[in-house]
């Protein structure tokens, strides 16, 4: 299973780099389909995110300088929220976590569909408190279902805060650094972390992240939006299949 996990890591890393996500939105459904339960998938996914988000943000640095200030504030909120995720994972059933994952996917698809691929106007200014609260809420929810938070953060940044899509995904991957480290800490303290599996997937993801970010900068904004929607729809179908089949 080690080789399979490394392969999952490469695939997840590419998607993480290309779409600016932590990778959990694709890794969690894959792990569920091959036999892991939701809480195990969440643990492996969170550890993988620590690897992919840090490396991906380093590669993204020169393309995301204009969003770092907001990213730090949102990220600190995500860290605080992510620290509470272990409590949620411990006290909420696998089935409820899967339903929450599906609900978030539906929200992301609808929000991105109605948002422009690029935004040429002046970006709205938001208070530090607003950014922090948004980050804390997303960190809490996202780490509890094993995703980095970009799946929630990107639609909010694009749809309500007037970021263009590529800047939003760059900030989203930066945000995942904070939320995933907090989630890793919390899940570990509550005894749910699978260290070996998470490390194998995480190391594999580094290869994928490099090529994913390279590919991202070659794609036009309109096509990029279509790819994000297609990815979310495929994952939604996989999660619905797994959830219905399980029950």
UniProtKB/TrEMBL annotation:
Subcellular localization: Cell membrane; Membrane
GO cellular component, one term: plasma membrane
Membrane-crossing segments per the record: 6-34, 41-59, 71-90, 97-117, 129-158, 170-189, 195-215, 227-245
Claim: Cell membrane is one of the keywords in the record: yes
Pfam families according to UniProt: TauE
Domain of life: Bacteria
Membrane topology reported for the UniProt record: Multi-pass membrane protein
Entry keywords, A to Z: Cell membrane, Membrane, Transmembrane, Transmembrane helix
InterPro entries: TM_pro_TauE-like, TSUP/Inactive_protease-like
Keyword Nuclease: no
Primary localization: membrane
Family per similarity comment: Belongs to the 4-toluene sulfonate uptake permease (TSUP) (TC 2.A.102) family.
Name under which the protein is recorded: Probable membrane transporter protein
Organism encoding this protein: Arcobacter acticola
Upper taxonomic lineage: Bacteria, Pseudomonadati, Campylobacterota, Epsilonproteobacteria, Campylobacterales
